[in-house]
Amino acid sequence: MPLDNVHIGLLSDTHGYWDDRMSHHLSDCDEIWHAGDIGNLDVIDAMQELVDTTVRAVFGNIDNAIVRSETKEILQWEIQGIQFMMLHIGGRPGRYASGVRQLLNQHRPDVFICGHSHLLRIERDPSFGGLYCNPGAAGVHGFHRMRTLIKFRIARGELVDLRVIELGQRTKK
Fold it and tell me: Which secondary structure element, helix H or strand E, spans residue 140, and what is its range?
């Protein structure tokens, strides 16, 4: 993987569901990130089969002890000078979950990633100076209508080509 061009796939709230659409859209990624409510280890295994290097995942409120033993509550990492922070229940700009504002102020990530709400939302938040990113929900459980994930590249220290991928309606086939 060239260090100056990293392809990322970001999803959340699979709730134990994985399908060929997710595999298709994530198959060209160098890393796959999951923002919680994974559902079971089969989802982690499916992600790991697609990438040669890294799967980054945090557990969510529906994840059992087995999934929690393979993931963390909060992840922080850096790629090409960009600081990332990911946890499942983050809230949203102006209405962050309890304790999240303190984490953002303390760590000042360039990109804050969360899930839980099933609501796709990407926006700059001047309150901590970074990008807020919730990929919506990729699974079939919940109130969301459209299943989504996000893809982007990290190139020369910048997020580029950020795009939303619609996976289809929430209902099972």
Answer: none
- Domain of 68? 5-169
DSSP characters for 44-82? HHHHHHH-SSEEEEB--TT--HHHHHHSBSEEEEEETTE
Give Dmax over CA atoms of the chain in angstroms: 44
Q: How many domains does the chain have?
A: 1
- Taking only the tens place, the pLDDT of each residue in 73-111 is 999 999 999 999 999 999 999 999 999 999 999 999 999
pTM value surpassing 0.90: yes
Give the CATH number of the domain where residue 142 resides.
3.60.21.10
Give the length of the chain: 173
Query: 35, 135 in Cβ contact below 8 A?
Result: yes
- The token pair at 73 is 């509550």
